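Q: What structure does this chain adopt?
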Amino acid sequence: MRSAARAMGDLLRGASEVQLGLALVGPGTVGKALLEQLRVEAPILHSKFGIDLQVLGITNSRTMVLGRDGSPLDLATWEESLLEQGADASLGVLTEHLKAANVQHRAIIDCTASDFVPKFYSKWMEQHGIHVVTPNKRLNSGRYSAYAAVRALQRSHRVHYLYEGTVGAGLPVICTLKSLLDTGDQIERIEGVFSGTLSHIFNTLAPGTPFSEVVSGAKRRGYTEPDPRDDLSGMDVTRKVVTLARECGSKAELADVATESLVPPALRDASLTPQTFMEQLSKFDEEIDARVREADEAGEVLRYVGSYDAESGVCQAGLRRYPKTHPFANLSGTENIIQFTTMRYSNPPLIIRGPGAGPAVTAAGVFADIVTLARYLGAPS
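A:
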C-alpha cells in the first residue's frame, strides 16, 4: 500500500511538474547570492512542488558559460567554469542557447544595473516567448514609452515580466501594491524611506555628528555605491518612486520628479574621483548639521523620503522632518519603510518595513519572483 501511494504521489507530481530554464545576466553581488540560493533551494522546490529550475547559462559583461549538451550548469562550480571555460559574452548566443534548450519554459534573469540589457526585454518576449525577471530599475523608471511597450508586449504575448526586487529589495512592495489595485482599492499616497544607504546615514546622524563621517562609515561598511554620490544624489529613490507611480497608472518621467540631491553643487563635477569627493565632503558638514539640529530642537528627525501623491500626480524625493514618534523616525540600520495610504487603509495606513539593502535580501526578492513565475506556469502552490 505504501509503495502504491508513493507511486501515485510521484505520478501526480510528475503531471504538474514545471520545467523552467534560466539564464542569468550579471553574476555580481546580487546575481551570485541568487545562484547560491538556487543551489541550495532548487532541489527542495523540485521535491516538494515539482518546480524544476535549471540554470542553463550565466554571463557577465565579458565572459559567458553555457550548459553543455543541454545540461544545466553545476551551481557549485559555476564561478570556476566561468573563469576557466568562459567564452566571449554574447546576449545573442545566450538567447539562442536558452531558446534551443529542451525545457517547457524559459526565463532570463537580469541582475545588472545596466541601461543596455533592458533593451533586449522586448525582443526576448516578442520573438522568443522568454519571460523576464529582474531587480534592474532602469526599464521601469526609464522612458515611459519604452516601459509601456514592454508592458503591452507582456500582455499581448502572454509572457511574464516580474520585478519585485526593483523596490525594497526583498520586501513585498510591488506585489502588495498590485494586490491593492487588483482588488479595487484606490491609492491616495505612497511615501517611504526607499534607500537602505540613506536610511543608515540618517538613522546614524545626530546633532554634532559630521555628515561626512557618517557617509565615510557607510562607505567602509559597503552600504554605499563605490561612488557615494550615486546614493546621495537621490536618483535611486527617484527611480523607485517613478516605478510605484507607474504601477498606479501614472505616466511620470524621471525628469518630472522634484529630487533633492545631497551632493554639494561644488562636488557634482563628474571629473572628481570618489576619493576626492570624500576628502572634500567635510567642508560642507555645517549645512546638514544645521538642519539636523533644527529638527532635533523641534523634537523631530530628518529622513530622506520619496513620495507619490495620486490626486496631484506629484512625485518627490528629498529630506523631510518627522516627529520622533513617527514610524519613519524609528528605523535602524538599512531598513526601508513604505507607507500606503489608500481608500481601505487610511487610519492607520498600511506599512511595510524591513531590510532594504543587501545582496541576500535582494536576491531573495528575485528568487521569489522565479517561484511565482513557476506557479503562474502551472506549478502547485
